[in-house]
Write a structure and sequence with these properties.
5-stranded mixed beta sheet, Purple Acid Phosphatase, chain A, domain 2
Length: 223
């Protein structure tokens, strides 16, 4: 029997939107929940999103949390790296969120553990899940042998080639690049519909995807 999944695109601090999506999704116990990364930065409540993810993990221990480039930027800074790369990508919104929640910029240890335990990819039997994407001219097996975290977290090269040129062994599900509508091709599935960019025409939705049905559930930005 084929496995069933519900995959959620880039959240970027939109806690209330995530709450509404999860309420409407009615995810069955035998359907695995996968989140594609970028939980923090830019939106109104990144700290609240991480609290929500902790609760999800308690309720559904098989939940898969992928790491986005924004989580990596935060971890790089907290591990002694430079601040400016994170600042250029929305760190101030995350700081404000913690300030509002705790009265100071305090990141609980549980949040740090959650971030450090996120995965760079999830290789399921029928699909490959990753935050940003893969090289279009190399099979999935090659990427696993030559693991390049920066590629998995940042690339957009796979969107620049015709679908028939992809050499992936199975469909790759990704976020990272905001799209006016979810991309549902045979081997290229993009589900970042720019929830936090509600001010941009054709964006401003959080997308969930039922697999293998390939059915979409979209919620407009709620905050």
């Amino acid at each position: 029997m084929r496995s069933k999944y519900f995959v959620i695109g880039d959240i970027h601090g939109c806690r209330r939107t995530l709450e509404v999506l999860l309420q409407r999704a009615e995810i069955e116990p035998d359907r695995q929940l996968i989140l594609i990364g970028d939980y923090i930065d830019r939106g109104p409540d990144p700290a609240g999103v991480l609290e929500q993810l902790l609760e999800l993990q308690r309720e559904r221990p098989d939940t898969v949390l992928l790491r986005g480039n924004h989580e990596q930027l935060m971890l790089d800074y907290l591990d002694g790296g430079r601040l400016w790369p994170w600042m250029l990508n929305g760190a101030e919104a995350t700081w404000r969120s913690y300030q509002a929640r705790f009265g100071r910029v305090h990141i609980p240890e549980a949040h740090l553990q959650l971030l450090r335990q996120t995965r760079l990819y999830y290789d399921a039997p029928e699909y490959f899940f990753v935050h940003a994407g893969l090289r279009p001219d190399r099979p999935i097996a090659w990427h696993l042998k030559h693991l390049d975290p920066e590629l998995l977290l940042w690339t957009r090269a796979h969107l620049d080639v015709p679908a028939e040129e992809l050499v992936w062994e199975k469909p790759v599900v990704f976020g990272h690049t905001p799209l006016p509508r979810a991309l549902l091709e045979e081997r290229r599935i993009g589900i970042d519909t720019g929830c936090v960019y509600a001010h941009v025409r054709e964006l401003g939705r959080l997308t969930g995807l039922y697999l293998p049905e390939r059915e979409l559930l979209e919620v407009p930005y709620q905050g």
